[in-house]
């Protein structure tokens, strides 16, 4: 008899789920597991949690001991159940389990690599681009990525609750009529209750010149149980676009597929922002597997980010050349929808800069010399009017 890999995976996941629940002092039940608030209350946060779940390396154990003084550790039971307990190179572990290398500060590391603090006219709002703003809704996440761009703010408890900042933010947006696009991020906005989120979106939609509202979230990856019909109803009501964050194909579980189906069927446009990470997805096959898997879930790969030079993340960053090579190996070799734009968020506040291999070799006297994915050259001649 041919084994069914889906059934085998489900059995392994069930065993791992029970183990995770025992570690956090709870009894496994499907009702608990599907309750996103139960997931949040029972996150793994301590060295002793991970010692019982994983065969930790000395670098991971040391990282967990020093993390409390640097950047919080928290992993939902759901996401922890996906770890390979024997393999420290598990791409999911690498993203959320700290390592000793986080104490190493590279000369190029920056506390605020994107220069957001300098472009913040009121607390909780970043206004860098002429027609769009970033609204930081809260400072908590379902799990904490070790390469977090906003580790200076996220999980630090220094951001006031959104309701205390919202009046000033709304007043600023009402005054600045050039703003047509609002991206809500944080922290993770989808951790707000449906009622609070509905109120926030309603106030933004009440501003006549706001045309486009987006939410950036990793909840569909870390906590797919949060994606409920009630939440989708709120997002649909306010015509929200959702930017999700996935970095490896192993994150695309049946639970994630169900969450994405709810969102897509509910009319929520989905785009994915992926961070290029050493040891996680820095190979052609890893990216191709991820991007193909996302398309199956009706999620469009949108950005591939060069990892920001956040303090203590040098061990997770690749070179720019690695990113260029990977995009070259994707462009023309797979579906165009599966090839995101490779970008660097220019350090110091320069904004997102698209990075790509040279394709327009020369352009003179109305003739463009083009370099395609096979390395061949072609000529395009402008139409003479």
What report would you give on this structure?
The mean pLDDT is 91. The protein has three domains: 5-89, no CATH class; 117-354, Aldolase class I (TIM Barrel, Alpha-Beta Barrel), CATH 3.20.20.70; 358-385, no CATH class. The radius of gyration is 22 Å and the shape is globular. The chain is an alpha/beta fold and 385 residues long. The protein has 14 helices and twelve strands. The longest helix has 19 residues, at 5-23.
Structure characteristics:
385 residues; alpha/beta; TIM Barrel; 9-stranded mixed beta sheet; 34% helix
List the helices and strands and how they pair.
Blueprint: H1 5-23, H2 30-33, H3 36-41, H4 47-53, H5 58-66, H6 77-80, H7 91-96, E1 125-126, E2 132-138, H8 162-175, E3 181-186, H9 194-205, E4 212-217, H10 219-222, H11 229-237, E5 240-244, H12 254-265, E6 270-276, H13 284-296, E7 300-306, H14 320-330, E8 341-346, E9 351-354, E10 360-364, E11 367-371, E12 377-381
Parallel strand pairs: 2-3, 3-4, 4-5, 5-6, 6-7, 7-8
Antiparallel strand pairs: 1-2, 8-9, 10-11, 11-12
Write a concise synopsis of the structure shown.
With 385 residues, the protein is α/β, with parallel strands linked by helices.
Rg result: 22 Å
Give the fraction of residues assigned to helices: 25-40%
Report mean pLDDT, rounded to a whole number: 91
Please state the structural category: alpha/beta
Q: Which regions contain 5 or more consecutive residues with pLDDT less than 50? A: none
**CATH class wording of the largest domain:** Alpha Beta
- The span between the termini is 69 Å
Shape: globular
Provide the CATH topology of the largest domain. Answer: TIM Barrel
CATH architecture classification name of the largest domain: Alpha-Beta Barrel
Question: Can you tell me the CATH superfamily of the largest domain?
Answer: Aldolase class I
Number of strands: 12
């Amino acid at each position: 008899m041919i084994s069914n890999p889906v059934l085998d995976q489900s059995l392994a996941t069930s065993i791992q789920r029970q183990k995770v629940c025992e570690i956090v002092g709870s009894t496994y039940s499907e009702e608990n597991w599907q309750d996103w608030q139960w997931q949040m209350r029972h996150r793994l946060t301590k060295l002793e949690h991970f010692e019982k779940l994983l065969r930790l390396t000395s670098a991971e154990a040391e990282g967990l001991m020093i993390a409390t003084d640097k950047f919080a550790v928290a992993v939902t039971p759901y996401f922890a159940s996906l770890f390979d307990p024997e393999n420290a190179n598990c791409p999911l572990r690498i993203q959320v389990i700290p390592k000793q290398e986080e104490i190493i500060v590279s000369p190029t590391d920056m506390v605020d690599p994107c220069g957001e603090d300098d472009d913040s006219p009121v607390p909780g709002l970043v206004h860098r681009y002429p027609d769009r703003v970033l609204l930081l809704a809260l400072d908590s996440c379902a799990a904490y990525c070790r390469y977090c761009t906003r580790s200076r703010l996220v999980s630090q408890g220094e951001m006031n609750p959104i309701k205390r900042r919202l009046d000033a933010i709304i007043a600023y947006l009402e005054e600045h009529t050039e703003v047509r696009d609002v991206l809500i991020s944080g922290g993770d906005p989808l951790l707000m209750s449906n009622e609070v989120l509905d109120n926030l979106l309603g106030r933004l939609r009440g501003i006549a010149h706001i045309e486009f509202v987006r939410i950036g979230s990793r909840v569909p990856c870390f906590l797919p149980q949060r994606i409920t019909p009630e939440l989708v109803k709120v997002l649909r009501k306010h015509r929200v676009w959702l930017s999700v964050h996935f970095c490896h194909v192993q994150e695309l579980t049946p639970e994630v597929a169900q969450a994405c189906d709810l969102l897509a069927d509910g009319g929520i446009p989905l785009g994915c922002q992926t961070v290029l990470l050493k040891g996680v997805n820095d190979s052609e096959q890893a990216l191709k597997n991820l991007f193909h898997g996302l398309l199956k879930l009706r999620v469009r790969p949108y950005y591939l980010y060069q990892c920001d030079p956040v303090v203590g993340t040098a061990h997770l960053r690749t070179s720019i050349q690695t990113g260029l090579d990977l995009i070259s190996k994707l462009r023309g070799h797979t579906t165009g929808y599966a090839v995101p734009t490779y970008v660097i968020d220019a350090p110091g506040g320069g904004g997102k800069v698209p990075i790509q291999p040279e394709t327009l070799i020369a352009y003179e006297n109305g003739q463009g010399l083009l370099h395609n994915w096979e390395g061949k050259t072609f000529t395009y001649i402008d139409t003479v009017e």
